[in-house]
Write a structure and sequence with these properties.
Low-confidence stretches: 43-47, 660-876, 878-938
GO cellular component, one term: microtubule
Helix content: 40-55%
CATH architecture of one domain: 3-Layer(aba) Sandwich
Keywords: ATP-binding, Coiled coil, Microtubule, Motor protein, Nucleotide-binding
Pfam family, one: Kinesin
GO biological process, one term: microtubule-based movement
CATH class of one domain: Alpha Beta
CATH superfamily of one domain: Kinesin motor domain
Radius of gyration: 66 Å
Bound molecules: adenosine-5'-triphosphate
CATH topology of one domain: Kinesin
Number of strands: 23
Shape: rod-shaped
GO molecular function: ATP binding; microtubule binding; microtubule motor activity
Amino acid sequence: MDNAASITVAVRIRPVTEWEAARLPDPLDTTRPFFGDGSLASHVQGHKFGQFRKIIAYEEDGSLIYDPMDPQAEAIYRQKGYLPPGTYRYKHRKYQYDVVFGPEVTQQAVFERTTKPLLDGILDGYNGTVFAYGATGCGKTHTISGTPSDPGIIYATMAELFQRIDERREDYAIDVSLSFLEIYNEEIRDLLAPAGADTPRGGLAIRENSANRVTVAGLTEVVPTSADEVNAIVQAGNARRTQSPTHANATSSRSHAVLQINVTQSPRTPGVTEERTMATLSIIDLAGSERASATKNMGKRMVEGANINKSLLALGNCINALCEPKTRAHIPYRNSKLTRLLKFSLGGNCRTVMIVCVAPTSQHLEDTGNTLAYANRAKEIKTKVSKNIMDVDRHVGQYVEAINRLNDEVRELKAKLAGEMAVENEAVKRRRANAAKAVENVRAEIRALAAKSRTMLCAGSFTAGNTAASQAKLDVLRIRVKELDSMADPSSEVEVEKGLLRALINAEEECVRKEADTISKAMSSAALFATNIGLAQRRKGDDWDEMAPTIVKLEGDTVLAEMRAAQAEHERDGLKQALKGQAAVITTLVGMLARTNALMVDGVQMLRSGSEAAMSNEDIANRLQILIDLNSKTFTDVIGVAVPTTGGSKKTGFAALSTRPTTKRPSVNGAPPTRTRPSMGTRRTSLSGLGSPGRRHSYRSPRKPSSLRAGAITTTGRKVSGEKKSVRWAVPIKPDESYVEPSTPKAKVSIALPTSESEEWEDDRTDESSAVETSSMSLDAAIMTIGASTAMPSGSSSGPAVRKIKMDEPKVVLDSLKEEDEQTPRRTVLGEHNQQVTASASKARRRSGIGSLRSDRVRRRSSLIPQLSPNYKEVAKAAAAGGTATGEAPAKAHHKSPKRPKRSSLLGVLSSSRVRPSLLRIGVEQPPSGTVAKPSWK
Ligand SMILES: Nc1ncnc2c1ncn2[C@@H]1O[C@H](COP(=O)(O)OP(=O)(O)OP(=O)(O)O)[C@@H](O)[C@H]1O
């Protein structure tokens, strides 16, 4: 569809040059040139101010006044009512153009308002032309080409064009080509011709076909790929363009330059018919019209000027003709090559923009007037604009071509897609692998943290279990001490008990204090461990998938739970070991008490029966002293605290004992023993259950123990028959003195002693299980005396050397202890240990063979029982000194009677154990009557 369009006329006023500025009126000079008719003076020679004046006044809306009247002159005119003779007649012509650019307007702004609208049509198939028209030196070349630092319309146009091509490249295939020529002295020259190419005589010829299409024969066409390339091409062409300095312009273009940009656009998706659009944008920089008088050109320059004027005159005529409807039938295009080339732009299918360049001063008064007049005429020119579109009906062969092209395109797209997917899959796989590796690393780190902290935390928990047991013991001990403290006028034995309990409290507190450090360190480790696990759980990698944090969190939670379980287990072990230690201590002390009681019963029987008439009070006292010493030693060995002596003048309540023990005594008639559990509140001293001295006679002899009844095996291995005496006081026995069975009925001992079977157990226990027991006790109480089997000097236990054994060096420690054992018995903290320590301790102890009792391989439990032999005094001394002598006595005994059956040894058991101070508050469960043995202390 054709659209009628007018030429867009824009006027650009160039800035005042320096030369002109020097000749304009000084704006500060109030003595302006006088134009009145009364003055006889003319302009002062050499005075240049006021030589020129500005001849254009314009408004933003495109209105322009050429040679506006001077307001002062107008005032004079109005005042006088007539124009005085000689007064300059101002043209004062008013024009209206599409747009007027003042001197300050930038190149980009000129492009935006003139050429850019044409570009919109170029890509839609509408031709366009931009040409600059004006007198020489008015800024045409500056507007069209500009300078490298301030490029003109060509560069801005091409930059915009290539940007739009890029935007449409996906949908359209757009081809751009350009040509650049000049018309110099009516010759057409190719500005893009290869260097050295021959130029036809008379220049390139213009061809015009029957369809009135004008072409230039042999014109070079180049295909640029970017705006910068176009700019370079134009700069190179301008350099080849004919330019000469003239009086009016130092860089005067002596030719008309025509740059043509051909744009062909076809959609990328071909249909049955292809809608291809073509458009040409012509950018023309005309040579400036010049008056020969003004330019003062001579010779060649004058010829150039004449040709320029001729072609411009032809242009003007064409414009006039185009504007006159009557003459429109014939437009004199053929009068010049310029008009022949512009035929298409002026009267054809083209949108045209005419940029009229004018000078602002009166130096170019006439040229500016003519230019503005032409421009005013030109805006009357109407052009028909239609879209250059070509519907190409495809040939069948072209369909195949199109199909092949489409297939290629499909293949290309598929390959691209597959490649992208493959790359994507690879990337995903790599990312997943990296994530899995990173997660595994964090899991391994968490596991390593757990492994590193496990030993410390478990040891701490074990110690905590021990300490909890110790605290419980301390509570009970303190309560008891408080009870004793509250007693009014306490007797000596109460003081003894208090002293013992306080010593136990001190020892227990010392252990707790020492363990506090271990527990504190373990707590710090636990906190650090939890923190580190938390940090590891919160770690997150950039390439982790969504499951990775969950996996790491679960791993951390699992490790924490496992650690808590292990800690709980070790704490429970600690408590268990403490309990075992208590049981061992109780077992030992109960045994000691039972045997002592049995021996005392035996002694009482002997005294009452009178069979030991020869025994003096001194002998009795000595025997009792031995018993006391042995018990004290055992006591010290077991609980690590010596039993305080009464000391001072204060006596115990022994003499005041006058009542039967409140606690039910063990049955002496062979009936099953009654289990008693003394409470702390009613606990009495060990003598509280004895009758008072006054009633000693009424205290019946103990009945014969069940083991001494008929058929029972005596300690000598002889079968007891009838009233056979099985227990006797070990009176000083002379070597030749034979054993005499007491004729009196023997008292029965209700506290069972181990039978031979028990003895066997006892022996085993002495070797193995006692070691376990020892270790157990040690674990519980965190204190153990390695080599407890040694008959330790009682005095040594009062100041135990405490040694910590670390879990990872039991052997070393035990070995060292083994050596130290030889000289100084030590108590060892084994709160952090478990069974492996036990085994090692047992082994070490056995290997050490420390102590006369344990090292004596020919040991029998019975032999370990001290005998009141003739040299019993030495034995007693030795026992008091460390028990070495006690080991010799059994050896002798054994030597004398090798076939003597085993006897249970209180001392053997007692001396094998040394445990942490413990509370001995449990019920005493007596062994079954069947296992009762006769007292064996001879
Ligand atoms: N708008 C403008 N801003 C700054 N300088 C300008 C402007 N227009 C023209 N000039 C300067 O004026 C001088 C003459 O300009 P130019 O050469 O473009 O004139 P012309 O019309 O092309 O002359 P000719 O017809 O002789 O080639 C140049 O030095 C140019 O830099």
